[in-house]
From TrEMBL:
<feature type="transmembrane region" description="Helical">
    <location>
        <begin position="176"/>
        <end position="196"/>
    </location>
</feature>
<keyword id="KW-0472">Membrane</keyword>
<protein>
    <recommendedName>
        <fullName>PepSY-associated TM helix</fullName>
    </recommendedName>
</protein>
<dbReference type="Pfam" id="PF03929">
    <property type="entry name" value="PepSY_TM"/>
</dbReference>
<feature type="transmembrane region" description="Helical">
    <location>
        <begin position="322"/>
        <end position="344"/>
    </location>
</feature>
<feature type="transmembrane region" description="Helical">
    <location>
        <begin position="12"/>
        <end position="30"/>
    </location>
</feature>
<keyword id="KW-1133">Transmembrane helix</keyword>
<keyword id="KW-0812">Transmembrane</keyword>
<feature type="transmembrane region" description="Helical">
    <location>
        <begin position="129"/>
        <end position="149"/>
    </location>
</feature>
<dbReference type="InterPro" id="IPR005625">
    <property type="entry name" value="PepSY-ass_TM"/>
</dbReference>
Length: 368
Protein backbone atom coordinates (compact mmCIF):
# COMPACT_ATOMS: atom_id res chain seq x y z
CA UNK A 1 0.00 0.00 0.00
CA UNK A 2 2.92 2.34 0.72
CA UNK A 3 4.27 1.74 -2.80
CA UNK A 4 0.85 2.50 -4.30
CA UNK A 5 0.65 5.71 -2.28
CA UNK A 6 4.10 6.77 -3.46
CA UNK A 7 3.28 6.04 -7.10
CA UNK A 8 0.04 8.00 -6.77
CA UNK A 9 1.79 11.03 -5.25
CA UNK A 10 4.77 11.15 -7.58
CA UNK A 11 2.84 10.56 -10.80
CA UNK A 12 0.29 13.16 -9.72
CA UNK A 13 3.03 15.65 -8.92
CA UNK A 14 4.57 15.19 -12.36
CA UNK A 15 1.47 15.11 -14.57
CA UNK A 16 -1.20 16.71 -12.40
CA UNK A 17 -0.87 20.17 -13.96
CA UNK A 18 -1.42 18.80 -17.48
CA UNK A 19 -4.54 16.97 -16.33
CA UNK A 20 -5.75 20.15 -14.63
CA UNK A 21 -5.36 22.16 -17.83
CA UNK A 22 -7.10 19.47 -19.87
CA UNK A 23 -9.97 19.37 -17.39
CA UNK A 24 -10.37 23.15 -17.39
CA UNK A 25 -10.19 23.49 -21.17
CA UNK A 26 -12.67 20.63 -21.57
CA UNK A 27 -15.12 22.30 -19.17
CA UNK A 28 -14.98 25.47 -21.27
CA UNK A 29 -15.26 23.67 -24.62
CA UNK A 30 -18.49 21.82 -23.79
CA UNK A 31 -20.20 25.25 -23.85
CA UNK A 32 -18.39 26.51 -26.97
CA UNK A 33 -21.52 26.95 -29.06
CA UNK A 34 -22.99 29.24 -26.41
CA UNK A 35 -20.04 31.65 -26.01
CA UNK A 36 -19.05 32.13 -29.68
CA UNK A 37 -20.80 35.46 -30.32
CA UNK A 38 -21.06 36.25 -34.04
CA UNK A 39 -23.83 37.43 -36.39
CA UNK A 40 -26.17 34.57 -37.43
CA UNK A 41 -24.68 32.22 -34.82
CA UNK A 42 -28.18 31.73 -33.41
CA UNK A 43 -29.89 31.18 -36.77
CA UNK A 44 -32.10 28.11 -37.06
CA UNK A 45 -30.53 25.16 -38.87
CA UNK A 46 -31.59 24.92 -42.52
CA UNK A 47 -33.18 21.68 -43.74
CA UNK A 48 -34.34 22.72 -47.19
CA UNK A 49 -32.26 20.78 -49.72
CA UNK A 50 -32.24 23.48 -52.37
CA UNK A 51 -31.25 26.20 -49.88
CA UNK A 52 -28.37 24.10 -48.55
CA UNK A 53 -27.21 23.32 -52.09
CA UNK A 54 -27.33 27.01 -53.03
CA UNK A 55 -25.16 27.88 -50.04
CA UNK A 56 -22.60 25.22 -51.00
CA UNK A 57 -22.55 26.42 -54.62
CA UNK A 58 -21.85 29.96 -53.45
CA UNK A 59 -19.05 28.93 -51.08
CA UNK A 60 -17.40 26.62 -53.63
CA UNK A 61 -17.93 28.82 -56.72
CA UNK A 62 -14.34 30.02 -57.18
CA UNK A 63 -11.80 27.17 -57.55
CA UNK A 64 -8.99 29.51 -56.45
CA UNK A 65 -10.57 30.49 -53.13
CA UNK A 66 -12.86 27.66 -52.15
CA UNK A 67 -12.24 25.98 -48.78
CA UNK A 68 -10.97 22.47 -48.25
CA UNK A 69 -14.02 21.57 -46.17
CA UNK A 70 -17.33 22.86 -44.86
CA UNK A 71 -18.67 21.91 -41.45
CA UNK A 72 -22.36 22.70 -41.69
CA UNK A 73 -24.43 24.55 -39.11
CA UNK A 74 -26.18 22.62 -36.33
CA UNK A 75 -29.27 23.10 -34.19
CA UNK A 76 -27.16 24.87 -31.57
CA UNK A 77 -24.84 26.86 -33.84
CA UNK A 78 -26.14 28.58 -36.97
CA UNK A 79 -22.87 29.15 -38.86
CA UNK A 80 -20.91 27.02 -41.31
CA UNK A 81 -17.21 26.65 -40.52
CA UNK A 82 -14.87 26.71 -43.52
CA UNK A 83 -11.30 25.37 -43.45
CA UNK A 84 -8.52 26.57 -45.76
CA UNK A 85 -4.84 25.72 -46.09
CA UNK A 86 -2.82 25.90 -42.89
CA UNK A 87 -4.70 27.37 -39.95
CA UNK A 88 -6.83 29.71 -42.05
CA UNK A 89 -10.59 29.50 -41.81
CA UNK A 90 -13.87 31.37 -41.85
CA UNK A 91 -17.45 31.30 -40.65
CA UNK A 92 -20.26 31.80 -43.15
CA UNK A 93 -23.99 32.01 -42.74
CA UNK A 94 -26.00 29.17 -44.23
CA UNK A 95 -26.59 31.12 -47.43
CA UNK A 96 -22.82 31.15 -48.04
CA UNK A 97 -22.01 34.75 -47.04
CA UNK A 98 -18.74 35.05 -45.11
CA UNK A 99 -19.24 36.43 -41.58
CA UNK A 100 -15.63 36.45 -40.39
CA UNK A 101 -12.23 35.13 -41.49
CA UNK A 102 -8.97 34.27 -39.77
CA UNK A 103 -5.46 33.50 -41.03
CA UNK A 104 -4.26 31.86 -37.82
CA UNK A 105 -5.99 29.81 -35.16
CA UNK A 106 -4.75 32.29 -32.55
CA UNK A 107 -7.35 34.75 -33.86
CA UNK A 108 -10.20 32.48 -32.71
CA UNK A 109 -10.14 31.35 -29.05
CA UNK A 110 -12.46 28.39 -29.65
CA UNK A 111 -10.10 27.10 -32.36
CA UNK A 112 -6.83 27.25 -30.41
CA UNK A 113 -8.51 25.99 -27.23
CA UNK A 114 -9.80 22.96 -29.14
CA UNK A 115 -6.30 22.39 -30.59
CA UNK A 116 -4.80 22.54 -27.11
CA UNK A 117 -7.31 20.12 -25.60
CA UNK A 118 -6.91 17.60 -28.43
CA UNK A 119 -3.29 18.06 -29.56
CA UNK A 120 -1.41 20.33 -27.11
CA UNK A 121 -0.55 22.47 -30.18
CA UNK A 122 1.72 19.59 -31.26
CA UNK A 123 -0.30 17.49 -33.71
CA UNK A 124 -0.11 13.72 -33.40
CA UNK A 125 2.69 13.90 -30.82
CA UNK A 126 0.61 16.07 -28.54
CA UNK A 127 -2.38 13.76 -28.98
CA UNK A 128 -0.24 10.82 -27.86
CA UNK A 129 0.89 12.74 -24.77
CA UNK A 130 -2.76 13.49 -23.95
CA UNK A 131 -3.61 9.80 -24.30
CA UNK A 132 -0.82 8.86 -21.89
CA UNK A 133 -2.06 11.53 -19.46
CA UNK A 134 -5.58 10.09 -19.67
CA UNK A 135 -4.30 6.59 -18.87
CA UNK A 136 -2.36 8.02 -15.92
CA UNK A 137 -5.51 9.83 -14.80
CA UNK A 138 -7.42 6.56 -14.85
CA UNK A 139 -4.67 5.06 -12.66
CA UNK A 140 -5.20 7.97 -10.24
CA UNK A 141 -8.92 7.26 -10.04
CA UNK A 142 -8.38 3.56 -9.29
CA UNK A 143 -5.44 3.95 -6.91
CA UNK A 144 -7.02 6.96 -5.19
CA UNK A 145 -10.20 5.00 -4.49
CA UNK A 146 -8.15 2.15 -3.02
CA UNK A 147 -6.14 4.54 -0.83
CA UNK A 148 -9.30 6.38 0.28
CA UNK A 149 -10.86 3.17 1.61
CA UNK A 150 -8.48 3.13 4.58
CA UNK A 151 -9.65 6.57 5.69
CA UNK A 152 -13.33 6.30 4.71
CA UNK A 153 -14.51 6.89 8.29
CA UNK A 154 -13.09 10.43 8.20
CA UNK A 155 -14.89 11.35 4.96
CA UNK A 156 -16.12 14.95 4.77
CA UNK A 157 -17.18 16.46 1.45
CA UNK A 158 -15.85 19.96 0.73
CA UNK A 159 -15.70 21.90 -2.53
CA UNK A 160 -12.46 23.57 -1.36
CA UNK A 161 -9.91 22.65 1.31
CA UNK A 162 -10.22 24.37 4.69
CA UNK A 163 -6.77 25.87 4.30
CA UNK A 164 -3.80 25.62 1.93
CA UNK A 165 -1.79 23.42 4.25
CA UNK A 166 -0.68 20.04 2.99
CA UNK A 167 -2.80 17.96 5.43
CA UNK A 168 -5.94 19.95 4.51
CA UNK A 169 -5.22 19.68 0.78
CA UNK A 170 -4.55 15.94 1.01
CA UNK A 171 -7.78 15.33 2.90
CA UNK A 172 -9.78 17.47 0.46
CA UNK A 173 -8.10 15.77 -2.51
CA UNK A 174 -8.91 12.33 -1.16
CA UNK A 175 -12.59 13.00 -0.38
CA UNK A 176 -13.38 15.11 -3.46
CA UNK A 177 -11.62 12.56 -5.64
CA UNK A 178 -13.77 9.66 -4.49
CA UNK A 179 -16.96 11.69 -5.05
CA UNK A 180 -15.89 12.70 -8.57
CA UNK A 181 -14.41 9.28 -9.41
CA UNK A 182 -17.30 8.01 -11.61
CA UNK A 183 -17.36 11.18 -13.73
CA UNK A 184 -13.58 11.29 -13.97
CA UNK A 185 -13.49 7.64 -15.01
CA UNK A 186 -16.02 8.35 -17.78
CA UNK A 187 -13.99 11.30 -19.11
CA UNK A 188 -10.66 9.49 -18.89
CA UNK A 189 -11.78 6.14 -20.31
CA UNK A 190 -13.48 7.72 -23.31
CA UNK A 191 -10.57 10.12 -23.87
CA UNK A 192 -7.91 7.39 -23.72
CA UNK A 193 -9.77 5.09 -26.15
CA UNK A 194 -10.26 7.94 -28.62
CA UNK A 195 -6.48 8.43 -28.67
CA UNK A 196 -5.39 4.78 -28.39
CA UNK A 197 -7.92 2.83 -30.46
CA UNK A 198 -6.49 -0.59 -29.44
CA UNK A 199 -7.76 0.08 -25.90
CA UNK A 200 -11.25 -0.43 -27.33
CA UNK A 201 -10.48 -4.14 -27.18
CA UNK A 202 -10.48 -3.97 -23.37
CA UNK A 203 -13.85 -2.27 -23.06
CA UNK A 204 -15.69 -3.26 -26.27
CA UNK A 205 -14.38 -6.76 -26.88
CA UNK A 206 -11.18 -8.26 -28.33
CA UNK A 207 -12.36 -7.94 -31.93
CA UNK A 208 -13.45 -4.29 -31.60
CA UNK A 209 -10.22 -2.61 -32.88
CA UNK A 210 -10.26 -4.69 -36.07
CA UNK A 211 -13.97 -4.11 -36.63
CA UNK A 212 -13.52 -0.36 -36.16
CA UNK A 213 -10.58 -0.20 -38.56
CA UNK A 214 -12.39 -2.15 -41.28
CA UNK A 215 -15.78 -0.45 -40.87
CA UNK A 216 -14.41 3.11 -40.94
CA UNK A 217 -11.89 2.56 -43.74
CA UNK A 218 -12.56 4.87 -46.74
CA UNK A 219 -12.79 3.54 -50.29
CA UNK A 220 -9.64 2.89 -52.28
CA UNK A 221 -8.14 6.01 -53.95
CA UNK A 222 -9.16 6.81 -57.51
CA UNK A 223 -7.17 8.45 -60.30
CA UNK A 224 -9.39 11.50 -60.56
CA UNK A 225 -8.54 15.21 -60.55
CA UNK A 226 -10.95 17.61 -58.88
CA UNK A 227 -13.07 19.36 -61.50
CA UNK A 228 -13.12 23.15 -61.59
CA UNK A 229 -16.88 23.23 -61.10
CA UNK A 230 -18.24 19.97 -59.65
CA UNK A 231 -22.02 19.62 -59.56
CA UNK A 232 -22.43 20.28 -55.84
CA UNK A 233 -26.20 20.55 -56.13
CA UNK A 234 -26.47 17.06 -57.60
CA UNK A 235 -24.34 15.65 -54.76
CA UNK A 236 -26.52 17.31 -52.13
CA UNK A 237 -29.70 16.08 -53.78
CA UNK A 238 -28.32 12.54 -54.14
CA UNK A 239 -27.41 12.45 -50.47
CA UNK A 240 -30.84 13.73 -49.43
CA UNK A 241 -32.63 11.17 -51.61
CA UNK A 242 -30.66 8.32 -50.00
CA UNK A 243 -30.93 9.59 -46.42
CA UNK A 244 -33.96 11.92 -46.27
CA UNK A 245 -33.95 12.20 -42.46
CA UNK A 246 -30.22 12.90 -42.07
CA UNK A 247 -28.60 16.30 -41.61
CA UNK A 248 -25.60 17.42 -43.66
CA UNK A 249 -22.46 17.64 -41.53
CA UNK A 250 -19.13 17.82 -43.41
CA UNK A 251 -18.28 18.28 -47.08
CA UNK A 252 -14.58 17.67 -47.82
CA UNK A 253 -12.46 18.01 -50.95
CA UNK A 254 -10.16 15.09 -51.91
CA UNK A 255 -7.25 14.52 -49.52
CA UNK A 256 -3.91 12.85 -50.19
CA UNK A 257 -4.75 12.28 -53.87
CA UNK A 258 -7.74 10.11 -52.95
CA UNK A 259 -9.72 11.41 -55.92
CA UNK A 260 -12.88 11.41 -53.78
CA UNK A 261 -15.15 14.13 -52.41
CA UNK A 262 -16.66 13.00 -49.11
CA UNK A 263 -19.96 14.07 -47.58
CA UNK A 264 -20.72 13.08 -44.00
CA UNK A 265 -24.28 13.03 -42.71
CA UNK A 266 -25.85 12.40 -39.33
CA UNK A 267 -28.95 10.26 -39.04
CA UNK A 268 -31.43 10.76 -36.17
CA UNK A 269 -30.21 7.78 -34.11
CA UNK A 270 -26.52 8.70 -34.37
CA UNK A 271 -24.95 10.24 -31.26
CA UNK A 272 -21.69 11.38 -32.84
CA UNK A 273 -22.22 15.06 -33.76
CA UNK A 274 -20.82 14.85 -37.30
CA UNK A 275 -22.28 11.45 -38.04
CA UNK A 276 -20.67 8.38 -39.60
CA UNK A 277 -23.07 8.05 -42.53
CA UNK A 278 -20.81 8.94 -45.46
CA UNK A 279 -21.06 9.28 -49.22
CA UNK A 280 -18.06 9.43 -51.56
CA UNK A 281 -18.23 11.05 -55.00
CA UNK A 282 -15.71 10.95 -57.86
CA UNK A 283 -13.76 14.23 -57.86
CA UNK A 284 -13.88 14.62 -61.64
CA UNK A 285 -17.41 13.55 -62.55
CA UNK A 286 -19.27 13.88 -59.26
CA UNK A 287 -20.64 10.34 -59.67
CA UNK A 288 -21.53 8.48 -56.48
CA UNK A 289 -18.81 5.91 -55.74
CA UNK A 290 -19.79 4.43 -52.38
CA UNK A 291 -21.98 4.98 -49.34
CA UNK A 292 -21.70 3.92 -45.70
CA UNK A 293 -24.87 3.70 -43.63
CA UNK A 294 -24.05 4.15 -39.95
CA UNK A 295 -27.13 2.14 -39.01
CA UNK A 296 -25.56 -0.96 -40.58
CA UNK A 297 -22.27 -0.76 -38.70
CA UNK A 298 -21.33 -3.55 -36.25
CA UNK A 299 -22.41 -3.08 -32.65
CA UNK A 300 -18.84 -2.56 -31.41
CA UNK A 301 -18.31 0.21 -33.98
CA UNK A 302 -21.54 1.92 -32.94
CA UNK A 303 -20.36 1.78 -29.32
CA UNK A 304 -17.01 3.28 -30.35
CA UNK A 305 -18.82 6.08 -32.20
CA UNK A 306 -20.68 6.88 -28.97
CA UNK A 307 -17.44 7.58 -27.06
CA UNK A 308 -16.80 11.07 -28.43
CA UNK A 309 -20.31 12.43 -27.75
CA UNK A 310 -20.10 11.01 -24.24
CA UNK A 311 -16.69 12.60 -23.74
CA UNK A 312 -17.56 15.99 -25.26
CA UNK A 313 -21.13 16.22 -23.91
CA UNK A 314 -22.68 16.22 -27.38
CA UNK A 315 -25.76 14.40 -26.11
CA UNK A 316 -28.19 15.02 -23.29
CA UNK A 317 -28.47 18.79 -23.76
CA UNK A 318 -27.62 21.27 -21.01
CA UNK A 319 -28.02 18.82 -18.08
CA UNK A 320 -25.32 16.51 -19.41
CA UNK A 321 -23.10 19.46 -20.38
CA UNK A 322 -23.27 20.58 -16.75
CA UNK A 323 -22.36 17.07 -15.60
CA UNK A 324 -19.25 17.04 -17.78
CA UNK A 325 -18.46 20.59 -16.69
CA UNK A 326 -18.35 19.33 -13.10
CA UNK A 327 -16.05 16.51 -14.23
CA UNK A 328 -13.66 18.96 -15.92
CA UNK A 329 -13.62 21.41 -13.02
CA UNK A 330 -13.06 18.59 -10.53
CA UNK A 331 -10.09 17.36 -12.56
CA UNK A 332 -8.72 20.91 -12.74
CA UNK A 333 -9.05 21.37 -8.97
CA UNK A 334 -7.64 17.97 -8.05
CA UNK A 335 -4.72 18.23 -10.47
CA UNK A 336 -3.68 21.79 -9.58
CA UNK A 337 -3.88 21.28 -5.82
CA UNK A 338 -2.03 17.97 -6.11
CA UNK A 339 0.86 19.73 -7.85
CA UNK A 340 0.79 22.59 -5.33
CA UNK A 341 0.89 20.30 -2.31
CA UNK A 342 3.53 18.04 -3.85
CA UNK A 343 6.05 20.68 -4.94
CA UNK A 344 5.43 23.53 -2.50
CA UNK A 345 3.92 22.00 0.62
CA UNK A 346 6.30 19.24 1.58
CA UNK A 347 4.95 16.54 -0.72
CA UNK A 348 8.49 15.58 -1.80
CA UNK A 349 9.27 14.35 1.70
CA UNK A 350 8.85 10.63 2.08
CA UNK A 351 6.59 9.97 5.06
CA UNK A 352 8.22 7.88 7.72
CA UNK A 353 6.64 5.92 10.52
CA UNK A 354 7.59 6.89 14.08
CA UNK A 355 10.00 4.46 15.73
CA UNK A 356 8.46 1.84 17.93
CA UNK A 357 8.51 2.66 21.60
CA UNK A 358 10.88 0.55 23.70
CA UNK A 359 11.06 0.07 27.37
CA UNK A 360 14.14 2.27 27.57
CA UNK A 361 12.56 5.05 25.55
CA UNK A 362 9.51 4.91 27.77
CA UNK A 363 11.69 5.38 30.80
CA UNK A 364 10.74 1.98 32.21
CA UNK A 365 13.46 0.42 34.33
CA UNK A 366 13.55 -2.52 36.63
CA UNK A 367 13.07 -1.51 40.22
CA UNK A 368 16.25 -1.44 42.24
Amino acid sequence: MRLLDRLHRWTGGLIGLLLALLGLSGAVLVHKDAWVMLPHARDAQLWDTQAIAAGVERIMADPATRPRSIIFATRDFGLNRLSYAGDAGAYSDQAGTIVTRWDSQWQRPEIWLFDFHHHLFAGDTGETVIGIAAVCGLFFVISGTILWWRTRKTFAFRLLPKRLSRPAIVRHHRDLGVVAAPLLALSLVTGSILVFQPLAGIFLGPSAPTQIKVALKPPAPRKAVLADHPDWTRMIRTARSLYPDAEFRILSLPRNDSGLISLRMRQPDEWIPNGRTTLWFAADSGALVRTRDARALPRAVKAYNALYPLHAAKIGGLPYRLVMTVSGLALALLGSLAVWSFWFRGGLKVPTQPPRATKVSQGLKRPA
